[in-house]
Amino acid sequence: MPIDLRVDAVRGDLADVDLADRVFAPHYAKACAFNVIATTELRAAPSAEAETMVSLNPGEQFDLLDISGGWGWGRSAGAVGYVVSNAIEPL
């Protein structure tokens, strides 16, 4: 099955360890379950101007794979993208 970057957590530098049998990446990470604590957007890039993939509401789960520069990268609601890190907290 081909990789779909909209739903498969793969970047040039990092991939979800669950995809290790399908994609080669320099590093792999295991997703950590986080809780969305404030309404936020899942964005295509770590920027407030980036395309919104989906809106997330408090109480939804966000599976975090990386956090850097005030942005978390992971998946939620069937999509992969970035959220502002102050909108999530560990479960």
Structure description:
The structure is a single chain. The protein is mainly beta and 91 residues long. The protein has one domain (15-90): Roll (SH3 type barrels). The chain has no helices and 9 strands. It has strands spanning 15-16, 28-29, 32-36, 40-43, 52-56, 61-68, 71-76, 79-84, 88-90. Strands 8-7-6-3-9 form a 5-stranded antiparallel sheet, with no helix packed on it. Strands 1-2 form a two-stranded parallel sheet. β4 (40-43) and β5 (52-56) form a beta hairpin. It starts with 14 loop residues before the first strand and ends with a strand.
Please give the structural blueprint.
Elements: E1 15-16, E2 28-29, E3 32-36, E4 40-43, E5 52-56, E6 61-68, E7 71-76, E8 79-84, E9 88-90
Counting helices, strands and paired strands, the structural category is mainly beta
* Overall pLDDT score: 96
* DSSP strand content: over 45%
The CATH architecture would be Roll
Provide a count of the helices. Answer: 0
Quaternary status: single chain
Large-scale geometry: globular
Number of strands: 9
The CATH topology is given as SH3 type barrels
Q: Gyration radius, to the nearest Å? A: 12 Å
